Each structure stands twice: as structure tokens, then as C-alpha cells.
């Protein structure tokens, strides 16, 4: 009996040592000489090779706080993004990743946003703030195919006249959100439904009306908490980023608001109050 206990204890110790060694090996991949970011080179207004995206500005700000040079690994945000950037150690952080995604280890979320309605300022639908509004019946609405708002359109009998736009694309060659807003301005569609961090900044540039969807009931939810993503096992690095986010939250919020990103509370029911 004593031998069995001793054997189990020895095995447990070996597992702990092995796990610790594995974590140390993973942690060693994090650069100490640069803030290395994985990003899409053509995903405006989020990130762009020219540095114009709001995630670029957040990365630049955090690199300054850390007093490290900012370095990028560019790869389109499509299937294989994490496999070709973060996992092999070519970079150390993805600035924007939805909370709970299994491909990365998530930091604490640094903002919450929701899908939005975008309308022309002269549209009779500019004041609509929920998809069950009877005023939407008979109108053509643009929506990203397979996105959460599409399910709500179907529930309210609006999907039949909706115009769908591609979900998974290489933004270097396709721009579904831009095409949707072009169609809105041309009168091809009457309203556009977009993810807020995409639609908000793009609509702001065009002088369009943006209304966050805060009143929708039922699944799927339309709001998401956005984190930074690091490699699995890099808990020390994750905790460092958590501290960095916490100490610089107000500055991060300022960058997001200036870009036109709609910020909401953690439950997607109200706008986040400005300080």
C-alpha cells in the first residue's frame, strides 16, 4: 500500500515537473526585445499594414507603455491564421480575439461591442433600433451571411428580402462590409447590419447613422467581449497583458471611441458610459 502511494506521488511529481518544463518552454517564445503582434494586413478599420487600424493604434500605444519596439507578423484573418502566426512563435499576441475562442488563451476582455444597424441620415428607417420593429417589413436589409443578425432577421420574417454578403473572406481581395455600405448609399439596400467594430468606424467615415442593437431577445446573442489572444500555456504573459489592460483601460477606450467603435456594457444591454 505504501509503495502504491509512493509510486503515485512520484508519478504526480513527474507530471508536475513535465508540465512546468512545458510551460517554461512555451513562455520562452515570448520576445523580451519587441512587442510582437499577429495581425491581418488588410482588415480595415481594425488592422492594416499601413498602421491605420484601431488595433494598430492600440498595439502602438501598448508598445510605448512597455518601451519596446512594435513588430508585426502579417497574415490574412482566415482559416490558418493562428496556426501560421501565433502558434509557431512568429509573434506573441493577437490584439483582438473573441472571448472563449479555443485556438488561443484569452486575456481579460478589454472591450465589449455589439452588432449595429447602419442607415442613411435621410432614411425614414434611421431611428429604428430593434429588428422586430414593424417598420422593417418589406424593406431590403444587408447582412453578412451566417452572422448572428441573420438568425434574428429570419425569426422576424425579414430574411426573404435580405441581401447576403460573404462572411469568411481574404480582405486583401474582398471587402463585404464596404460593398454593403456602397449598396446602402446607392439605395440597393435600405439598412445594413454589421459587427460594430467594423460597421461603426466605416459608417463614421461616410457620415452614416449607427445604432447599436441592444434590445434583441433570444439567441444568438449579438454582443461579444473582445480579448487579446496568446498561446496556450502562456499564463505569465497573459497576466502581464491583463495588468497592462487594466492600467491603461481609459486610454484604450479613447482609441476605440475615436475610431467609432460602439462600446457597450458587459451584457450588451446599454452603451458603456464615457468617464
From TrEMBL:
Q: Does the keyword Signal apply?
A: yes
Where in this chain does the record put each Solute-binding protein family 3/N-terminal domain?
Answer: 34-259
Q: Where is the signal peptide?
A: 1-26
Say yes or no: keyword Secreted present.
Answer: no
Under the heading InterPro entries, the entry gives:
Quinoprotein_dehydrogenase, Solute-binding_3/MltF_N
What are the entry keywords?
A: Signal
Which residues, by range, are in coiled-coil regions?
A: none
- PANTHER family from the xrefs? ARGININE-BINDING EXTRACELLULAR PROTEIN ARTP, MEMBRANE-BOUND LYTIC MUREIN TRANSGLYCOSYLASE F
Q: Which protein is depicted? A: Substrate-binding domain-containing protein
The protein's organism comes out as Plastorhodobacter daqingensis
Q: What is the lineage of its organism?
A: Bacteria, Pseudomonadati, Pseudomonadota, Alphaproteobacteria, Rhodobacterales
